[in-house]
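Lab notebook, page 48
Experiment: co-folding of the full assembly
Goal: obtain a model of how the components sit together before planning crosslinking
Operator: M.T.
Materials (sequences as entered):
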Amino acid sequence: MLRSILAAVAAATFAVGAQAQTIKIAILGPMAFVQGENHWAGAEMARDEINKGGGINVGGKRMQVELIRADTNEIASVPDATNAIERVITRDKVDFLIGGFRSEAVLAMQEVAMDYKKLFLGVGAAHSKLGLNVEQNYERYKYWFRVSPTKDVDLARTLFAVMGSIGQQIRTELKTDMPKVAILAEKAVWTEALVAAAQKNLPAMKMEVVGTWQPSATATDVTAELSAIDRAGAHIVFTMLSGPVGISVARQMGERNMKAVAWGINVEGQKEEFWQASAGKAQFVSTLDTYSEVEMTPKTIPFVQAFKQRYKKAPTYTAATYDAIMLLKAVIEQEGTTNADKLVAAIEKIEHIGTGATASWDKRHDLNWAVGKTAGIAVQWQDGKKVPFWPPNVKGMQPFKMPTR
Amino acid sequence: MLQDILVTGLVNGGVYALLAIGFSLIFGVARIVNIAHTAFYMLAAYCFYALLTRTGLGFLVSGVISVVAVTAFSVLCYRLVIEPVREHESAVLIATIALALVFQELMLFIFGGHFLGIPSTLEGSLRFLGVSIPYQRLLILVVAAAMLVLVWFILYRTRLGLAIRATANDLEVANLMGMNVNRVAMATVAISVALASVAGVVVAPVFVVDPFMWLAPLVTMLAIVVLGGLGSLKGSLIGALIIGYVEAITVFVLPAGAYLKGAVALLIMVVVLLVRPEGLFGVVFEEER
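Observation: model returned without errors.
Model output:
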């Protein structure tokens, strides 16, 4: 009996010792969907690279990275997301949290993470409220940082910068002073500020807004909307779409042989599978994006190539979990500790060169917006390939094309 | 704008009509509350997608195999899930909801949450009254018309149709008259699922295939069948066109409220039911038959 107890105590001691050799990081994402798949894939690449290199140096002690896969199912259910984050904190005893996608779910998960004072690096959600929380109640929310993408307001700044460039091309090629723009935005919280900004800014940019159409985010048929846009003679369809409606818009524009070109946010358009999903009809559809084989940073091209080699497809923006883990490694090694409070102070001061951005953070723990650093890139689908075209001064960019009229 | 509304409403109404015919048969005529009906439509779309893109079989062969396989599967589901609880409507309702959710999760497991596209059977488009109409949508209109004629023929020109209508009118009397009501119900499920499968094969190429694609059509189909009047194929056709036109008018008149098109269509249904609870063609049609 005594021997059994001693053996159990020894085993438990060994287990605790073994556990202490790893840094546990929870990767939170909708794992049955592309966003979650990329969360996990980016994290796997970072883990393997770090562990192969001997792990993370924590004050002279090498520690391996252990990933905990947490399926938040947040696209279907916000409560599933809060349950997932609660589980990894309380049962799996993770040290850090990375991921999230849908803003509503991430806002809820942010509360749980802050309750436990866990460092939570957001990779996926754009809603401004996440950063506003930090500014309004720093002591509670300081453990939150947004690694990718930039907040919604800054996404709008990028959208208008690219829109100006496309508008100029249309003026030159079509010899028109006032390009006509149709705003096509899904009805959702995240598009409200963008739609208002577009209606206000586009006339100031000498562009005519011919109308605003707002289908449901889950709409599968937009023929009536596109018919009206066609009739209005739009040159540009300014898209703000995160759901499957982005595929319907691309496909049905192609089927109707529309002469207008689509530019904006089309989350589905960022995915490698988009061309197939739109049955090859997405010619000239363009969208904001993060990754392509262009020199955004010295690490971008090697990362994209390694990702493609390993997963047989290009990364989407949620693969920036790679950058989040590398950021953690950098600040842990710099501070020599995994203490969350010390790491918060370190991230606030650091400029981190990642694979998708050269990142630094403001007082809301949002990314400081800058073209060529954190603003991302613009890509256009041309003959089945996603071609990067903005910012034009970055090496590797190619021309933006328009349908022949 | 008027020509846009006329053409767009007709084309979209045709899509809804094709989806509604099978549902009208099972829910409206046979009165079996098969909530999994549009889930079979989803299964057919996935089956068609897999055969077409992964085996290299052509459109026709892939389509035929999909329709036959899903129809055969529906018969199995009927025997295992619906038949044992057939006499209790609420149990059928719950069992078929469960069945639909199982199908949804199965597709999520096998294909993931990816949005998949099926190539058009017919490529290209034509301009009519200045409005561009893809050929695939015209194909849907033709298939919808053909299916309507076929179902009408089965119901009113065959012994099976007579049996379906008889069991729908009074299950017990039909049973006492010597009809094998379970076999009739099974045949009804098979025919309606075959129609759903045809819709999956023909309609899915204009939409996106995903594990949740059965939900939105289910609500619209319920609205169309109830609006047109339970048991009336003609009512379902007119209901589908009404919904198609109401949606088109909403988008053209209220562009920023395009997301309301589904809600406006359902509101029209509620208003019609308040004025005429039996739907547009419900009672008259049932009395005639």
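Interpretation: The interface with chain A takes residues 1, 4, 7-8, 11-12, 15, 108, 112-120, 125, 130-132, 134, 136-137, 205-208, 210, 213, 216, 247-248, 251-252, 255-259, 261-262 of chain B (CB under 8 Å).
Next step: discuss with group before ordering constructs.
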